[in-house]
Amino acid sequence: MNFEFSDAERGFAEEVEKFLDEHATPDVADVTRENMAQIVDTPERRAFMGKLARKGWLGMSWPVELGGQEKEGIYEYILNEALARRGAPQIGKGVGIVGKTLIRHGSDKLKKEFLPQILRGEIEFAVGYSEPQAGSDAANMQLKAEKVEGGWKLNGQKVWTTSAHFADWYWVGARTDPEASKHDGISLFLIPMNHPGLEVQATPTIGNEITNQVFFNDVFVPGDYLVGEQGRGFRYISEALDLERFTMFTYSPSEQRLEELIEYVKETEVDGEPLVKDPIVRQRIAQLSTQAEVARVLGLRFVAAARDVSAKPPTIEASEYKLYATQLSQRIANAIVDLSGPGGQLRVHTEDAPMRGRGDMTYRYSVLDTIGGGASEIQKNIIARRKLGLPKNF
Ligand SMILES: Cc1cc2nc3c(=O)[nH]c(=O)nc-3n(C[C@H](O)[C@H](O)[C@H](O)COP(=O)(O)OP(=O)(O)OC[C@H]3O[C@@H](n4cnc5c(N)ncnc54)[C@H](O)[C@@H]3O)c2cc1C
User: Fold this and answer.
1) Which long-range contacts (CB under 8 A, 24 or more apart) does 22-31 make?
2) What domains sit in the chain, N to C, each tagged with a CATH number?
3) Pocket around ligand 1: residues whose beta carbon is below 6 Å from it?
4) What would the pLDDT profile of 163-195 be if each residue is shown by its tens digit?
5) 271 alpha carbon to ligand 1 midpoint, in Å?
6) 392 versus 10: which is more confidently predicted?
């Protein structure tokens, strides 16, 4: 497998960098928001997505008949990683998760309504799977969907719905058949976030950003806003999660943080000795740099395995990548805090802190990344069962 970019791909990467030099201004691009930098939560960030759309860079891998260009997934990868590296909004939920899942399973009506809006960068989604008793065990979701005339009535609660406070549409799993087995009783719905029966309450996180709880009070959903077939929602959610584990946990921010750490180590002296001469420090940096290369290649393996947008996304590659990349991000955060001494615990944006306090937010945020999208233990369970054929543990 060749992990080098072709001339055309390198040319595209350069074009993206030029675009970002011009448009990734501080009001839209901020690496200190860590992985939440990807969300499109301000008018400026929406306008930025509109610019990406006008460049024809949203949905490049999608089928031509649905508005895409049928380009290799590597172009989307190059774009998304370049955006993430600058802390700019990313193609995330719309292009990468909801759009691709609708392409495989949505009705013509839903495709016609949502895909063009996604391609124009006009629509933001929130994703609602988790509930108080359904995090790792997402198939245990209990949000109740009752059949009523013309559609469904939803009652219950979601937790951890990131983006619910600004999104336009909610991509939600609910239990449509309480008698069926837990995996077969779930269906997937699209609901406008401004529905009067939805109540959104902020949940602060250990990072400086929020996620949300959402309460459903007699939320009516017309029948044709059920995605795919009734009772098959958990299969669609599993596919969407494989896409999420790759698209929303980018590698380049880890590389960028590691580069900042290497610069810091090169220019800092401790007790009159350059830090860079300390053999323990050198070994730690060399090891992290090698691990960063492993994370990069695992990402590229996912891209290669996900070549066909109309096929099921690769589960094992998604879990291997997510597990390794997010744990590496934590190891880099630990190294930043350890090597920058007591000053490394100063808050982000503190002018005279080592790396302007970068360690603080990176350290706090990298914990969240090993939980959101499925915790590390769950990725290990998937690899153990699906790749190694080991028995199920729950
Ligand atoms: C910042 C952030 C954003 C999020 N955004 C969203 C969102 O937009 N939409 C959404 O639906 N969800 C979202 N989530 C929720 C996320 O998917 C869940 O937090 C995650 O799946 C873990 O579920 P839980 O929090 O209920 O923990 P639990 O499932 O209770 O797990 C607790 C601990 O037990 C371990 N564990 C659980 N089961 C097993 C097992 N079988 N084997 C071994 N270990 C196990 C877990 O790994 C974990 O360490 C978000 C979470 C975070 C932190």
Assistant:
1) 23/48, 23/51, 24/48, 24/83, 24/86, 24/88, 28/88, 28/89, 29/86, 29/87, 29/88, 30/87, 31/85, 31/86, 31/87, 31/253, 31/256
2) 7-90 (no CATH), 127-230 (2.40.110.10), 249-387 (1.20.140.10)
3) 127-130, 135-136, 160-162, 205, 211, 368, 371-375, 377-378, 381, 393-394
4) 999 999 999 999 999 999 999 999 999 999 999
5) 43
6) 10
State in Å: Cα 1 to ligand 1 middle.
34
pLDDT in tens, 117-136: 999 999 999 999 999 999 99
* Chain-centre distance for alpha carbon 161: 13
With a cut of 60, say whether residue 394 has pLDDT above it.
no
CA of 137 to the centre of ligand 1 (A): 8
Distance (Å, rounded) from C-alpha 58 to C-alpha 52? 7
In this structure, are residues 314 and 304 in contact, taking their beta carbons and an 8 Å threshold?
no
Please name the residues in contact with 261: beta carbons below 8 A apart, sequence gap of 6 or more. Answer: 285, 288, 332, 335, 336, 339, 355
Strands 125-128 and 269-270: unpaired
